[in-house]
Design brief:
This protein is of the alpha+beta class. The chain has helices spanning 3-25, 48-64, 74-88, 113-118, 123-128, 165-176, 188-210, 212-218, 227-252, 259-280, 286-289, 329-337, 353-369, 386-397; strands at 31-35, 40-46, 97-106, 133-140, 156-157, 284-285, 295-296, 300-303, 306-309, 311-317, 323-327, 348-351, 372-373, 375-380, 401-403. The strands form four sheets. The chain has a five-stranded antiparallel beta sheet. Keywords: Membrane, Transmembrane, Transmembrane helix. The chain crosses the membrane at residues 189-211.
Length: 405
Amino acid sequence: MTLQCRFKELKVQLDQAVQDQTSSIKVHRCVDISAHRDFLTLSWLGDLDYWRSHAVDAEVRRRRKLPENKGVSEERLRRLSLPLILKRHAHKQERAYALERVVFFKTSNLVPETLEKMAPDCVPGYREAPLHRHIVLARCEKAVDKGGEPEFTRWRVQTKFHRLASDVIKSLSDEIFPKPLPERRKRRWIWFVCLAILVAALGAATAVLTVPELKTRFLPHPHHVDRDELESLRTQLAEMVEVDQALRDQIAAGRQVDAETATRLTELDQEIAAVWARLAALPVPGTQMDRIGQAACLPVRHEGDRAFPTFLYAITLDRDASLSLRPLADGVEMARNRGFTEIPEQPASQLGIAAFETLVRPTSNEARARSCRHFVLLIENDPQDAGRYIARREAVERHFYVFRP
């Protein structure tokens, strides 16, 4: 089996494992899994309870080694550990924290170029791993104190190396879905309060369902994203951007611009802007909005479990390792109306990371001064180099909240 086929198959099995776990334990976690030629990447978000769950597991393992806990059930040890962990995490921020994993498969002692560029500190650990094993690199944003900002830890090689794909899937699944926290004991009076709230909620729900005026006001029509429409828009956008870039490359090479080429470029700009506008109008799943640590600078409209942020820019990770930025009219106009002054309003293409960050840093600094962040649409073309792809993606995420349609 080639490496590319191996990682494609591993992605399919991981997707199924996440779906099975979600349906069995009723915990939804947004997991992004991508298979590349030489490796597989996955990332997910964990809230403060996620980190508390892992801390409880660690405390149970510590208590299990004590002589006085011999024969004590794991459930009781988890209950005994819970108060200590809750106290230890009481000052931590309630927010979404990102976790990332990269999976390699070692077939020789040659170190993959991607690993050398992305995580050079992990090269010795990779060399020490036995052949024909899956090797997992890990990094994460750990829970931070209130008022602090989370930072990614350094990449590290996990100590366990797995021969079988099923072992890798189980290990990663256990990391994504830790055991839930034991139920916290509540005083009896809380049950009476809960019962009163339940009765009130049932009464309100009955009124909303039976009174036409209330039903129209409080039960908006659901919006769903048509997957076929989304894929069609992505394909159209990729094709138009490729043609646009080819024409601009010809102009940059010194070719004289005739009237037909100039007209075609103008038409392409209008068509690309129209497709971006249609993508910006698509509803964002509620789980995507959980990424917000600070408030969104521009209004976010909610309808049921869907959210509609106002996007400031459309940003493309180009195949030539550069970035392109296109302002979106609604977002720019709304930002101006709200008093934002550091908003570049002209499209920019073929930007390196340094040039991109120089361009958008005043925008993100102005947003940070207001304790908010802007949303942008991000289109990721097929990465030719994983290290450069990750660097460009992280450059965008340092300044904006990202939605990938």
